[in-house]
C-alpha cells in the first residue's frame, strides 16, 4: 500500500511518529485533536504507550530500555513519580507496545523469604546453568536496582528451565536482549535474559532442566552472561535464596573470589 502510493516506508513511519508525538503533547496540554500540531522538535520515530493499572514510569522505562529521566524529559513530565492510568507516554525508538506488567516486576524485596514463601517438594528450583561464575548480585546498582543475578559462562552455553512451567514471554527487548519468562505454580516466575538465542515460544509447556535458550550477550550487557530472576507474585526476590547451595556456580564464584584476593 505504501509503495503503491509512492511513499517510502521510513517516511511513513516518521509521519506516524510525528502524529503520535503531537497527540501526546496535545493531550498533556489539554488540547483537542483538531488543533494544529505544536511547533516542537519531533524526537524521531517511536510509539505511544498508554499507561495501564499497576504501571509507573520506572516500570515502563525498564520494559522499553529507557531511563525514567529520559522518558520524563521527552514527555515533559514535571513529576516522574506521577503518571495516571490512561496517560499516553511517547516511547522514542519503540517498535511495538510491550506488556509492561509481564516484562517488569512490580517491585523488589531484598529480605530473605519467610519459610512459607519457599516452594516445597518437587517444586524447588535448580540453577539455570550447569556451571559459571556469579558476576553481579541482587540489589542496588547505582541509581537503579538489579532485580536478579548475572552468571557468566561461555557463549552458547545451554540455559535450563529452573522449574516446571509454561512460557509467558519469549522475545527481544532493548535492555534484556533475547529474554524468556516462565511462569510456575504458586505465583512464581523466572526470567532468563541476554540470550544468544531463545529456543522456546510463548505458550510452550516446559519441564525442569529443559534447554530453553543459549547464553549470549544480547541487549545491554558488558559481556556473555545470563541475567536470571526469580519473582513471587511479580515481586523480584533474591534468586540465591531459592537456589540449591553447593552448586558448581557457587563453587566457581568462591574460587574466583579467592583468586582475586591472592
What features would you describe in this structure?
With 262 residues, the protein is an alpha+beta fold. It folds into two domains: 9-102, Membrane-bound Lytic Murein Transglycosylase D, Chain A; 111-261, Glucose Permease (Domain IIA) (Distorted Sandwich). The protein is 20% helix and 29% strand. The chain has helices at 9-28, 57-64, 68-74, 100-103, 248-261, and strands spanning 46-50, 88-92, 107-109, 133-136, 139-141, 144-146, 149-152, 158-160, 165-173, 177-183, 188-198, 205-206, 211-215, 225-232, 235-237. Strands 3, 4, 7, 8, 9, 10, 11, 12, 13, 14 and 15 form an eleven-stranded mixed β-sheet that branches. The longest helix has 20 residues, at 9-28.
Which key phrases capture this entry?
15 strands; 5 helices; alpha+beta; Glucose Permease (Domain IIA); 262 residues; disordered N terminus; eleven-stranded mixed β-sheet; Membrane-bound Lytic Murein Transglycosylase D, Chain A; two-stranded antiparallel sheet; 2 domains
Gist of the model:
By secondary structure, the protein is of the alpha+beta class. The protein is built from five helices and 15 strands.
**Whole-number average pLDDT?**
82
> What is the name of the CATH superfamily of the largest domain?
Glucose Permease (Domain IIA)
Sheet bearing the most strands, described?
A: 11 strands, mixed
CATH architecture group name of the largest domain:
Distorted Sandwich
* Radius of gyration over C-alpha positions, nearest whole angstrom: 21 Å
Principal-axes geometry comes out as globular
- Give the low-pLDDT segments: 1-14, 22-42
Distance between the termini: 66 Å
Percent range of helical residues = 10-25%
Domain module tally: 2
From the 3D structure, determine the CATH topology of the largest domain. Answer: Glucose Permease (Domain IIA)
How many helices does DSSP assign?
5
Proportion of residues in extended strands: 25-35%
Order of helices and strands: HEHHEHEEEEEEEEEEEEEH
- Count all strands and give the number: 15
Structural class: alpha+beta
Q: What CATH first level of the largest domain would be assigned?
A: Mainly Beta
Amino acid at each position: 500500500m505504501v509503495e503503491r502510493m509512492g511513499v517510502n516506508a521510513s517516511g511513513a513511519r516518521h509521519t506516524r511518529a510525528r502524529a503520535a508525538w503531537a497527540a501526546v503533547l496535545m493531550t498533556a496540554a489539554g488540547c483537542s485533536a483538531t488543533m494544529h500540531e505544536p511547533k516542537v522538535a519531533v524526537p524521531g520515530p517511536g510509539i505511544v504507550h498508554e499507561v495501564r493499572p499497576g504501571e509507573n514510569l520506572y516500570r515502563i522505562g525498564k520494559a522499553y530500555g529507557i531511563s525514567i529521566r529520559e522518558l520524563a524529559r521527552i514527555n515533559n513530565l514535571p513529576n516522574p513519580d506521577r503518571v495516571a492510568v490512561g496517560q499516553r507516554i511517547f516511547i522514542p525508538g519503540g517498535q511495538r507496545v510491550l506488556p509492561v506488567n509481564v516484562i517488569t516486576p512490580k517491585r523488589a524485596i531484598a529480605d530473605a523469604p519467610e519459610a512459607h514463601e519457599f516452594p516445597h517438594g518437587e517444586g524447588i528450583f535448580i540453577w539455570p546453568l550447569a556451571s559459571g561464575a556469579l558476576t553481579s548480585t541482587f540489589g542496588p546498582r547505582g541509581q537503579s536496582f538489579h532485580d536478579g543475578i548475572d552468571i557468566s559462562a561461555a557463549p552458547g552455553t545451554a540455559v535450563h528451565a529452573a522449574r516446571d512451567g509454561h512460557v509467558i514471554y519469549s522475545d527481544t527487548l532493548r535492555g534484556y536482549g533475547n529474554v524468556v519468562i516462565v511462569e510456575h505454580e504458586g505465583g512464581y516466575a523466572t526470567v532468563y535474559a541476554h540470550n544468544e538465542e531463545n529456543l522456546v515460544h510463548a505458550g510452550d509447556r516446559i519441564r525442569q532442566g529443559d534447554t530453553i535458550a543459549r547464553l549470549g550477550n544480547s541487549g545491554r550487557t558488558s559481556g556473555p552472561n545470563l541475567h536470571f530472576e526469580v519473582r513471587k507474585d511479580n515481586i523480584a526476590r533474591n534468586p540465591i535464596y531459592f537456589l540449591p547451595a553447593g552448586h558448581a556456580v557457587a563453587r566457581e564464584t568462591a574460587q574466583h573470589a579467592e583468586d582475586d584476593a591472592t
